[in-house]
Design brief:
Length: about 220
Amino acid sequence: MKRAAIIGATGLVGQRLLKLLLDSDRYDEVHYIGRRRADIDSPKLVQHVMPLENINTLKLSSRIDDAFCTLGTTIDVAKSADNFARIDRDLVVSFAAWAIVSGASAMAVNSSVGANAKSLNLYLKTKGEMEIGVQRAGFGSLTIVRPSLLVPTGRKESRFGEELSYGLLRLFGWLMIGKARRYKPVKPLAVAKAMVAGVTSRRPGVTIIESDAIS
């Protein structure tokens, strides 16, 4: 019996990823960890509704095999740089540490195109720091997916910047060739599939999947 754990499953990528895991013959049990219940029913699904800050207190009756993280927010939603870093970096790293203790040997995490711990951009810097923290957790196989803008967004809350960027990319996306291809928008389902494929491959060490390699 194989078991997976997922955090951040209520977002664009997370919703699709959770469905892929539940529909997969690979997993007999999928543990969802979140602040609110996931709006999906399955005999495979085990839901743990709790403050994510308390992830280290969660004890499972059986070990998990694989871990998936699509947790993330924006500066506007987080309201402050510190809170943004707490969610997009600290909580993700805490989940990775918990997953190791809980038995996981492979993990896939959703990051961002341009992630770089040395960046002057807060968003990209935080994502880069998150990647470093997750790598330090010690997974035998770690997949980091770095998508560009996710489209169509389909979010419940309005994110003006994303909608504007999507509109411009629809008009001028055909101009994005060469190195610019990495900034072309990608579909959330494609990101979710890349994460599953990364974990399933069990490639040793760290594998980074850039946006232009997501299809």
